[in-house]
Structures are given as C-alpha cells and as structure tokens.
Specification:
This protein has about 80 residues and is α+β, with helices and mostly antiparallel strands. The protein is built from 3 helices and 3 strands. The chain has a domain of about 55 residues: Multidrug-efflux Transporter Regulator, Chain: A, Domain 2. α1 packs across α2. The longest helix is centred in the C-terminal third of the chain and has 10 residues. It is globular and about 50 Å long.
Length: about 80
C-alpha cells in the first residue's frame, strides 16, 4: 500500500484500517496506540484518521510493544 500526499502538499490522512495494513497489525492495535498517546490522530466528525507522518514516526521509533489498556477502560465480559 502506497500512501501519497495530497496535491496541495497537505499531509495524507489514512483510516484506522489502512494504518493497520501499513504497520501490519490489527486495527485494535492502532486504536490502543492512539488511546495510549503513542500515535496521534485526527477526529473528523465520527471518522478517526491518522497522519501518514505519524505512522512514519512509529516506524522510525520502532515501538515494539503496546501497553494494555487501563483496567477501567476495558469492557466487562460475562457476569463476573
């Protein structure tokens, strides 16, 4: 997948799914990176977009692990 800049020089914005494909991970990992503020994002109404330069920075930094979400952010499962 090749992500290009817009003709006017503005940074390209990609979806969570496209960012996951670019980094060869799951969309959930992308959302975790965003929630732990390791990856910047832009909200356009209901849409969540990621700047290509932020994805490039992740690759350059070489993040190897995404910390789990805080327990208060996890959804409860089952009746326990």
């Amino acid at each position: 997948m090749v992500i290009k800049k817009q003709d006017n020089g503005a940074p390209a914005l990609v979806s969570v799914d496209d960012a996951a494909r670019f980094l060869a991970c799951s969309p959930k990992t992308i959302r975790n990176l965003i929630s732990t503020q390791q990856l910047g994002s832009v909200r356009l109404g209901r849409l969540l977009r990621i700047r290509q330069r932020d994805l490039d920075a992740i690759v350059d930094r070489g993040i190897t692990a995404v910390p789990p979400l805080r327990p208060d952010r996890r959804r409860a499962r089952g009746g326990k």
